[in-house]
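Example 272.
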Amino acid sequence: MKTLILGAKGMLGTDISLLFPDATQWDLGDVDITNESELELKVKALNPDVIINCAAFTDVNAAEEKQEAANLLNGKALLYIVNAAKKVDAIIVHYSTDYVFDGKQKLGYAEDAPTNPLNMYGSSKALGEKNLTENYAKFYLLRTAWLFGKNGKNFISTMLDLAKTRDELKVVNDQTGSPTYTKDLAQVTFDLLEKKQPFGIYHASNDGSCTWYEFAVEIFKQASVDITVNPCTSDEYPSPAQRPKYSILQNTKLPKLRTWQKAVQAYLEETQ
Ligand SMILES: NC(=O)c1ccc[n+]([C@@H]2O[C@H](COP(=O)([O-])OP(=O)(O)OC[C@H]3O[C@@H](n4cnc5c(N)ncnc54)[C@H](OP(=O)(O)O)[C@@H]3O)[C@@H](O)[C@H]2O)c1
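Predicted structure in complex with NAP:
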């Protein structure tokens, strides 16, 4: 199958590109997915069977100020991708986030739960979901959460960098989610396509859940870093975007991924 990867140089895009070495890999310098005519022309000329979209506006705090840019890239551009895919009858693979949910359900959210985002990033991603699911049938929409990967700034690299200059850190302990390794998400994507699973919405995060504080403690334990980590509340660590308290993605359709702790171990072994 002829595959096109959009946002191929991003954190997830790089791991997807490694699993699909024969795919055409485009990033912002090759095509701007917010430019409808450019995207359509280039996709038509390439004529792919599958379009994997890893391009996104992912800065959650910046999205509060740059609402228009976030809505264009995460929301409206999905209409452009759908229109381009229709011209060549391609399957679309797209990624969304736990932040489309409000986080009020302690046990998490199933694939068909109604969305109700708390912040601008979440609402821009929810718009993208709507534009995709209401206008096209041949799609895999994978919601994921708290991504970490070798090719991007992520929570693990941030914690390890901070530990180089500090003896003590405060980390938020009232937001719960599921850390997810981009390499594992790339494999889920590969398997969905290879096994020709039914189109639709899937939840793909590493198994288990934790708070950011618990995530930090586990990272330092596994990396053998001696540092004091203190739990704090979101109110003590104000940020522009409000985040859901419990954004666990219930996975009722796919085989379970390895636990997030095992994924952290693999990441550390592969990066240190
Ligand atoms: N990161 C997370 O924790 C997280 C959590 C849940 C879901 N997700 C979702 O997972 C997916 C992948 O996220 P990620 O963290 O891997 O993203 P990322 O590292 O921010 O990568 C996004 C890529 O898209 C490119 N891009 C930006 N604007 C573009 C445009 N107009 N046209 C084409 N390409 C453009 C970026 O290029 P530049 O770098 O040059 O701008 C970058 O290479 C996204 O859909 C995201 O919403 C992420």
